[in-house]
Amino acid sequence: MHKIVVEDLTAGYGDEPVIENISFELRGPALVQILGPNGAGKTTLLKAILGLLHPMSGRVFINDEEVTGDPEKAGVYVGYLPQLFTTYFSKYPITAWELVESSLLMHKKKWPRLFVGVDDRKRIEEVLSTVGLSREAWKKNFWHLSGGQRQRVLLARALVHDPPILVMDEPFSAVDPAGRIDLVQVIAKLSETKLILSTCHDPELLLPYTDTIILLNRKLFKIGKPQDLLKIEEMKKIYGEAAILMQDHIHICDFHA
Ligand SMILES: Nc1ncnc2c1ncn2[C@@H]1O[C@H](COP(=O)(O)OP(=O)(O)OP(=O)(O)O)[C@@H](O)[C@H]1O
Ligand SMILES: [Mg+2]
Questions:
Q1: Which of 8, 69, 94, 181 lies most in the core, judged by the most C-beta atoms within 10 Å?
Q2: How far is the CA of 39 from the centre of ligand 1 (A)?
Q3: Distance from the CA of 188 to the center of ligand 2, in angstroms?
Q4: Residue nearest to atom 7 of ligand 1 (CA)
Q5: Domain-by-domain residue ranges, the chain?
Q6: Domain spanning 3-252: which CATH class is it, in words?
Q7: Does the C-beta of 173 come closer than 6 Å to ligand 1?
């Protein structure tokens, strides 16, 4: 099953709500893009769906199970590619392979969890190939890889347990133009079998494969089909003057760091 239900969700930090009273239902397999400017609350919404951020009010259901504020429950169904992966263990030496392997082990239901079998190794090889990480990078220190290579490792990490739902926060950041085209194909293929929810500052990249668009700018929230929402008047409500019409095609000036 591929289903996310968000019910009257209000979420933020401290006493300050960032997003308010948001409700929607998504079913897949499908590709859903969340669009909105910096600070609009896109990452906040994703974190609330994943249970990483406890909402101030409202509920989240994934595949009909309530997962509100519970990342372990949500993690059974959802793979997560976070925005800018720089955590406190950024100096910890770990290879690309080990990062993917550790995710697979974490998701194993049966003991002994620490045993890596032939099937597990095959799965890791398969997923690293799927995301297009060249073989010579597999056993290198993750922190010595390029930004684009790291992004592929993190996608492999999110995918290794074959979740029905994939949440990606800025999957193309640090990926060069040729790599982007490559990654678009990977994501398009995955969207044939998974429900994918992704933020992106360049909506055109995934547009040909996008089933649903969510426009978000804090209290402004709209959900619909790309042909209904990717109109200059709708985009101006969300992006202001950064949305410009160029020869019948909308361009969002990318001021993102
Ligand atoms: N951990 C935090 N503590 C306090 N405020 C936060 C925290 N994370 C985000 N915020 C605030 O919440 C608001 C929304 O941030 P969020 O990261 O959800 O935006 P975004 O739409 O993902 O932006 P971007 O396009 O830059 O990734 C911002 O004003 C930000 O300053
Ligand atoms: Mg963000």
A1: 69
A2: 5
A3: 22
A4: 13
A5: 3-252
A6: alpha beta
A7: no
